[in-house]
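A quick aside before the break. I want you to see a complete sequence-to-structure record at least once, exactly as it would be stored in a machine-readable document. Don't worry about memorizing anything.
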Amino acid sequence: MHVAQHYVAIVDVILLGIGVVTGATRARGRDRSS
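That is the input. The structure line, written in tokens, reads:
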């Protein structure tokens, strides 16, 4: 169970990082477009 929880935590951090990068990229793209 401990390993499973560790996996979930890692995946959660990765998804969070991807979301932040994607959001930042979209914001930059919108700024450049406008």
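Two observations worth writing down. DSSP finds one helix and no strands in the chain. The radius of gyration is 15 Å. We'll return to this after the break.
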